[in-house]
Write a structure and sequence with these properties.
The protein has helices at residues 18-24, 52-63, and strands at residues 7-17, 39-43, 46-50, 80-88, 91-99. It is α+β, with helices and mostly antiparallel strands.
């Protein structure tokens, strides 16, 4: 009777390791790393998981982020991202992602 409405939008927040988040039931200590394969985004007090295509886009963007372009520069522990896409049921279908 009720259908989940997909909401288009932009989200900005901290990129997390979704597997770590699921196992710990919280975001503390679950920062995304270069080994992360399933991502989530903590934005505006909510955590959204990314769809499978979004995970691939996030992994590629993570590996090419700006602070990796300067070899001598220390990488930030917290990785921030801006995502454009559609959200439905707590999962974002990613159209575009920018990782800072």
């Amino acid at each position: 009777m009720f259908t989940m409405l997909a909401l288009a939008g932009n989200w900005s927040g901290k990129l997390l390791d979704a597997a770590c988040y699921d196992s710990k039931k919280g975001a503390n200590g679950c920062e995304a790393t270069s080994q992360t394969t399933a991502f989530a985004l903590s934005a505006s007090g909510k955590v959204f998981k990314l769809d499978s295509a979004g995970n691939a886009k996030a992994a590629a963007a993570f590996k090419n982020r700006a602070d990796r372009a300067e070899p001598g520069k220390a990488q930030a522990k917290e990785v921030m991202a801006t995502i454009t896409g559609q959200e439905s049921g707590g999962t974002i279908t990613v159209e575009a992602i920018e990782v800072q």
